[in-house]
Write a structure and sequence with these properties.
This protein is of the alpha/beta class. It is built from 13 helices and 12 strands. α3 runs parallel beside α4 (113-125), α6 runs antiparallel to α13 and α7 crosses α12 (311-329). The protein is globular, with a radius of gyration of 22 Å.
């Protein structure tokens, strides 16, 4: 790859987006230059969506400043016709496209037809297709006949936090904590799972309690989902459960909450991968995940088939017993836990692989 300044200059990558923790870690390599996200008209600092680089006009005006365009997410507002036109504009400008398929099913949307139609345009058009797990790569091959390179998600917690979590198993006594994070009820969140989780806590016969985290608006009497507010009111009356209503957490607050958690349950009806699973691996939390998607291929976890009655309750029971057995074993690192050294090495390898890919396909002057 020879970029405009010379053979050793970094490849100029127009990442969509650039200002995201995943992108900063995965593409953080000295041989890559991430072009900063342009300001979005009318939006505040740090807001990159809807991304201006997804417009044909922006491509025509700025394509000479890029060697590669790498699309991660954020194209949901485009129509299929607009997406085709955008891909064609990149081709006309001679800028190769890299697509990372984070989501085969979009967790922010209930209906998936539009998302899949966009992928039907983007994946075949890409000079390189990447994804996070072998499970997702197999599905990409089945659907589009495209071979996707698997590059795992880098760590999300700071290395110092991960190293600190390596010592969390020193105390083999005390109550375990199971957490379900509902937040503001994203499109793929199923709050009814909470009752199954509580049943699993009780059946485990391990000293444990359940905490459900939710944004305050969900509990408002005049909210959009009164049945959810009623469900959580019932759950909160159980002596083994607590419902915590609070505003969105900062990254530091997320790390603090997971650092006090032993089992995290992902209450998802659809989706493919999860950043929460990366944090679970970082901080030594055993996750209970749906059997659908590719969650169980992302990191060691306990999978539950949501179509089978009692599956989530049984999975929570098993997870609690696994955590209890591990902490009594005296072993320092749990089987589902990453070490700081391993995560640091993985991030470096992932960034180096991205640099290799971008330099191999990036356009030359």
């Amino acid at each position: 790859m020879t970029s405009p300044g010379g053979v050793d200059d970094p490849v100029r990558v127009r990442s969509v987006p650039a200002g995201h923790p995943y992108v900063a870690a995965a593409l953080g390599h000295p041989r890559l230059h991430l072009v900063p996200d342009p300001p979005v008209p009318g939006a505040g600092p740090g807001v990159w969506w809807p991304h201006p680089a997804l417009s044909i006009g922006h491509v025509r005006e700025h394509a000479h400043e890029w060697d590669v365009v790498h699309l991660h997410f954020g194209a949901e507002h485009l129509s299929v016709e607009q997406t085709r036109a955008w891909v064609d504009a990149l081709a006309d400008a001679g800028v190769p496209l890299v697509v990372t398929v984070h989501d085969l099913d979009n967790p922010h949307l209930r209906e998936q037809d539009h998302h899949r139609a966009l992928l039907d345009v983007l994946v075949p058009a890409a000079a390189a297709v990447l994804t996070l797990t072998r499970c997702a790569a197999a599905r990409i091959a089945d659907r589009w006949g495209v071979r996707a390179r698997v590059l795992p998600h880098p760590h999300l917690a700071p290395l110092a936090r991960i190293e600190e979590a390596e010592g969390r198993w020193g105390d083999s006594e005390g109550e375990l904590l199971v957490r379900v994070v509902l937040k503001d009820l994203r499109a793929n969140v199923e709050p009814a799972i909470v009752e199954a989780v509580l049943a699993g806590v009780r059946a485990s016969e391990v000293p444990a309690r359940l905490v459900v985290d939710v944004h305050p608006g969900v509990l408002a009497p005049d909210g959009d989902r009164p049945e959810v507010a009623q469900l959580l009111e019932r759950v909160a009356t159980d002596p083994l459960a607590r419902v915590d209503a609070h505003p969105p957490w900062s990254d530091e607050e997320v790390h603090e909450a997971l650092g006090a958690t032993n089992v995290l349950v992902l209450p998802y009806t659809h989706g493919t991968h999860s950043g929460w699973l990366e944090l679970c691996a970082d901080l030594g939390v055993l996750a209970v995940v749906p059997a659908h998607g590719c969650y169980a291929d992302q990191h060691p976890a306990v999978a539950a088939d949501g179509t089978v009655p009692g599956a989530f309750a049984a999975a929570v029971t098993r997870a609690l017993r696994d955590v209890d057995a591990h902490r009594r074993s005296g072993a320092e690192i749990a089987p589902w836990q990453a070490t700081a050294a391993a995560r640091d090495e993985q991030r470096r390898e992932v960034a180096a692989a991205h640099a290799e890919i971008h330099r191999a396909i990036g356009r030359t002057p």
